[in-house]
Each structure stands twice: as structure tokens, then as C-alpha cells.
Amino acid sequence: MLRWHRRPGDAPTLGELVAALGGRLVRCRRSHVVSSLGPTDAPAPVSLAPLWHERAVGDVATCRAAVLLADAAFAARIADAAADRGLGLWIHPRPRRALRGVLERLYEPRDPWDETEPPRAVGAAWVHPRARLGDGVRLAPGVVVGAGAALGDGVRVGPGAAVLHDVEVGPGAAIGPGCIVGADGFGLDAAPGDLAPEPLPHVGTVVLGARVRLGANVVVARGTLGATSIGDDSQLDALVQIGHNARIGRGCVICAQVGIGGSTAVGDGVWIGGQAGIADHCRVGPGARIAAQSGVIGEVPAGETWGGTPAVPHARWMRGAAVLARLARGREP
User: Fold this and answer.
1) What pTM was computed for the model?
2) Which of 93, 222, 226, 228 is 20 to 30 A from 205 in CA distance terms?
3) Residue 323 belongs to some domain of the structure
4) Catalytic residue numbers?
């Protein structure tokens, strides 16, 4: 994996990007400088945001990007909402490819383990000289801490874990044996029928809140554009996978072997049973409960309990299970 650094010099304009990467502009000045990127729900203003997922369409009404990058089908769907917000559109047949091109023009890849700054031994761990360790940090044998990583006071990292470049870990957090925090996510420049998908540059990071606990062999992927984040006091059991750009709230409990797809938002105080899966770009409201081995493919309202595959409200899931049991016994529902 690579560590992406902002290129020196002036950021490109939309006109320069369109000339190099293709597409057409609507309500955009060609002189508009693309100096910052973010998701459609970025909390701060950004120059450009990609939009290529169904569940991001609703973000347009509150989007703080100056320009949205989308294909023609999505551009047609959001045209009125974008016009109402005064948002420009960059319409491109392959928005993921265009985003990849923008990222490669804004950032340059470097080896995160450049031999000119070799890691130093801290006990039996290896720590990059540009990493920052707070007071009372404890690193077990075989731990690796990358360039620019920041570990708060009292953080504990178990044997063989890796906290990679630019990851932030809050005070009192505990990272279990074998965890990987900050590996590249699964964001791809890919399209139907494409037999040579390419990874997108992942220029984001991971932010773990205070007192977060990761069980053994948890993987938290870094964000493509912003941060993958886990809120204060959340507890993750062994073998949990958190996808790129996911946002996990405070005080969540996530049991073993759960997988959460990229750009999914999980509210505060959510509990997720073992081996459940949540698809990308889903929303799980605060205080919700997800039963074990469930498959979530949409939005779970706050405070509700859902189960099954695809997941539905708990009462409906149980009624369905009862009907199937009666049918299996040869009785009418």
C-alpha cells in the first residue's frame, strides 16, 4: 500500500480536469479550482464530491460540495435538487475513473516505509520516527506503527497488530492482537463488464475514539476521501471488518465476524449480533439492534430491532419464520 501526499503547486481547475479526463460541465466555471474532495455528506465545504450510489441521492439537498461528479443517469435524477442548491455538475460516463484521475493529480504516492526514515525499535515493536505516542502507551511484541500515526495516552496495542500511517487512536483505546487499522479499503475504479478493475487511491485515514476496544484480528479500512471513524467507547469483538468511509457511532457493541460495508453510517448505541452483514451506504439509526447472521441492505430506523436476510423488523421476521415452520410440517400457513 502507498501513502498519498498532496502534490506541491497549484490545484487543477475543472477546465483542466475535463480536458484531461473527459466529461462535460453544467453550471460550472471552468476556472473553478478543485482543491478539496469529500463525500456528498461531508460536514465541511469541499470543491468536488462524487455521487454514484443510490443512497447518496438524498444527500444532495444538504450537500456542501461546490460540484458533484456523476454519470448522466444520476445527473438527470438530481438535476432539480442540484439546481435548487446551486450545485454544479461534472457529468462523466465513468465517474470512478474520473475521481481516480483527480486524486492522482492532487496526490502523489510514496512508500510509507521509506528507507531514508527507517522504523525504530520500541521494545519489541517497530515505530516510524514520524509517529506520535502519548504517555503510557503500551506496544506488545511485533506491533507496527506507521508514519504520522498518533496514539493517545494509555493506548494498548496487542501482539502483531498494525496501526498504519496517519491513523489517529484516542486515549485509553485497546487494539487487540493481529488487528490491522488503516489498510486500504476496497474502493475500486470498476464498471460492469470491466475485467481489469483498479484500486482507487485511498487518501483518507482512520480515527478511533477514546476507549474504543478492538478484539483480535479486527480490520478497519482507511477512507478513500475522508476518515473511517469509530466513536468513543465502542466495543468490537474478534474478526470484525469495517469498510472504508464507514462511520460507527459512540457506545456501539459489534459482535464477532460482523462485516460493515463502505460508507455505511451506524448511529450511537447500536448493537449488532455475530456474523451479521451490513451492505455499503446503509444507515442504521441510533439505538437500533441487528440480530445475528442478519443481512442489512437498506435503512434501519432508530431504536428498532431487525433480523433476517434481507433484514426486516423483528416481528415480521419472526412471523415469517413461523409460517415457514408450518409449511415445512405440511400445514397451511
Assistant:
1) 0.94
2) 93
3) no
4) 244
